[in-house]
Amino acid sequence: MPVTKFDIEEKYKYQNGFDSYFETEAVPNALPTAQNSPQKPPLGLYAEKLSGTAFTAPRHENKQSWLYRILPACSHPPFTAAQAPNESLGLGPEPFRRLHHIPNQLRWDPFDHDNSGSSGAESGGAHDFVSGLHLLAGAGDPAMKQGLAMYSYAAGKSMGEREAFYSADGDLLVVPQEGALDVRTEMGWLLVRPMEICVIPRGVRYQVRLIKADNGTEQPARGYALELFQGRFALPELGPIGSNGLANARDFQAPVAHFDDFDYGTTASDGPNEYRITGKFNNTLHTTTQRHTPFDVVAWHGNYYPYKYDLGRFNTIGSISFDHPDPSIFTVLSAPSDHPGTAVADFVIFPPRWLVGEDTFRPPWYHRNTMSEFMGLIRGGYDAKKGGKGGFVPGGASLHNVMSGHGPDVESYEGARNAELKPAKVGEGSCAFMFESCLMVGVTDWGLKTCQKVQAEYSDHSWGGVKVHWKGGKE
Ligand SMILES: [Fe+2]
């Protein structure tokens, strides 16, 4: 365990705000005053600019941070292709050429990644967060900076104490479902628990550790992730809702600067501490071993940084008269395409909420959508799915692709059709979420076959018994 000068209380201090311009220093006066790149940066640090957008991106889109670090990130031996990890990870450019595009509704039992038939994060076994990532579905091409990838992960152990990972392919949105993630980034620490999310921007190096239980064993983790090859997540416009509501900017949290306070040697090549850096580059993994820690950023300022958000802080809004709004009303974060109002990826949640609509079919309506809809369940049950073999349960998922019909299963429909319409709280103790995309997503071999979690009878169990209520034109 690297020695740091920070104890556990200090490392989880945060700065609050979405898309803010922050500055933070772990040692006083580490940030230069009034300029970014002085001839000699303070305290013998190097200045390094981290660009998340083109230099010339419009001011309202421009993302960058200045890092003041002990050694610059460039000081490492050449990367080499990782030995045969990609197939087992479901990574590599090949899966994107072999995706299965099928119109059927799909639903999965909880993923466990080892095909043993057991479910739950305890089967994360020998995998850490990176090796436990499995590509489930995707669209586009990271080399063209277009599209996205959807993953399931299960980790049974922390990444090595001297390991770090980054992706040149995109920003990663992580949705823990079981087990907290102790995420150390170049820019500071984030503790991300189930019912929280985090976003780690393209290029930022990080290490994911699991939390230790009282008996010293690491608590396994499982969840979902979405990698955004194009653009970045923003808060959705609020329109007539006004200036507050949904996810409020002040509830997003960014880390404060931390660094490894140990011997660095005299040059970048003779330090006493080996660190293995793994990079994801066009869906392939590459590694190098450098003689110094990547966690040496003593101070930083900018608006390009990792952040977390507690889903319990989402201000849920809905109808107080009749019908219910489109599920876009539950959007937490939206990554827009170049076409206004059309997202490469929306992250949407279905939190506990009151339903009060009069003369209203209250569950989601039957639906076909030009957008693709991938859903997961963090905890509890989901109000539109009651029955069906296997069901829609925490750790599982469903995919309703472009123009694939879906909606409440027969049991949910009949129950809602005949329900007494009193004000009712739905979803207590529950939280489903959706990755919604304007792109048609293909499913990997792993998702469709290898994981052995596809519920073969999902469609028939859900909708095969949908009743005919038509009585020849009579009520
Ligand atoms: Fe839908």
From TrEMBL:
An annotated Gene Ontology molecular function: metal ion binding
List of residues binding homogentisate: H367, Y382, H406
NCBIfam families associated with the record: hmgA
Protein name: homogentisate 1,2-dioxygenase
Highest classification ranks of the organism: Eukaryota, Fungi, Dikarya, Ascomycota, Pezizomycotina
This protein's UniProt keywords: Dioxygenase, Iron, Metal-binding, Oxidoreductase, Phenylalanine catabolism, Tyrosine catabolism
Family: Belongs to the homogentisate dioxygenase family.
The keyword Metal-binding appears for this protein: yes
CDD domains with a match to the protein in the record: cupin_HGO_N (cd07000)
Pathway annotation from the record: Amino-acid degradation; L-phenylalanine degradation; acetoacetate and fumarate from L-phenylalanine: step 4/6
Location of the Homogentisate 1,2-dioxygenase C-terminal domain: 313-469
Cellular component, GO annotation: cytoplasm
Needed cofactors: Fe cation
EC number: 1.13.11.5
Residue ranges constituting the Homogentisate 1,2-dioxygenase N-terminal domain according to the UniProt record: 13-311
Sequence positions that bind Fe cation: E373, H406
Record GO biological process: L-phenylalanine catabolic process; L-tyrosine catabolic process
Matches recorded under Pfam families: HgmA_C, HgmA_N
Residues at the catalytic site: H324 (proton acceptor)
